[in-house]
Amino acid sequence: MSVEHAKINEDGLPGHERRMDEKPDFMPRYEGSDRLAGKSAIVTGGDSGIGRAVAILFAREGANVTIVHLEEDDDAAITAHHVEDEGRRCLILRGDVGDKLFCEEIVRRHVEAFGGLDVLVNNAGEQHPDKDIRDVTEEQLKRTFQTNFYGYFFMVQAAVGHLKKGSSIINCTSVTSFEGSEELLDYSSTKGAITSFTRALSGNLAEKGIRVNGVAPGPIWTPLNPCGGASKEKLKTFGENTPMGRPGEPWEVAPSFLFLACDDGSYFTGQILHPNGGTIVGG
């Protein structure tokens, strides 16, 4: 199933996973145990990278999934194929999460398809490396916040009326929220906002029994970095500055989202998990 609500990004980000020479490893490593049986989830940025790994793992655990993507139709089709191989249904929605009306459409179409909503994963994002803050244009600054933060806010606004006690919202923040990034000034700022939003929203929704948590990945091998999200210099040593000395793979991050989505994480709200290769951060 698919519906189109298109927006063309300025420079081709987040990029096509299918075209990468060294492709990310996204498949789950263990058999499912029905931890999300009978549930449904929306995963923004679900066509590739971390979002793809999360969508497939959720399907393996029993959830029907809506994946939202910007313009990479080929990647989205691959993700949907894997979700359906797990015996679950997958709705593909194409568009810009920075558009409030589209976020409302996402939730409406998901609920129509699956009869409700149990898990919202806000994962879509973009980043643009700049060594000099003066190189960050007003347009870029607004665009990065529109996608990375406004999109999360709009999705929660659209979804919250359909969530119930036991539902879960999971926001993808970043290690840069805690330690910054000298080349990702606007991106790091959005991730700091997402971390604060996660903590504030968790208190706001606690009485309703809706849990709100975040995942703060370190350097993970996804299309976002080699397709323009990191400088050529950074790519040469990508992930080598972590204690583990390597970048992570999407499949290594997805279980954090699963834990927070299912009943295993029932006593977690307002918390951030850190699959980052061993980097110690505060909070």
TrEMBL record:
Family matches, as SUPFAM superfamilies: NAD(P)-binding Rossmann-fold domains
Pfam families the record matches: adh_short_C2
Keywords per UniProt: Oxidoreductase
Region described as Disordered: 1-31
Listed PROSITE patterns: ADH_SHORT
InterPro entries the UniProt entry points to: NAD(P)-bd_dom_sf, Sc_DH/Rdtase_CS, SDR_fam
Similarity comment text for this entry: Belongs to the short-chain dehydrogenases/reductases (SDR) family.
Protein name: SDR family oxidoreductase
Organism: Sphingoaurantiacus capsulatus
Upper taxonomic lineage: Bacteria, Pseudomonadati, Pseudomonadota, Alphaproteobacteria, Sphingomonadales
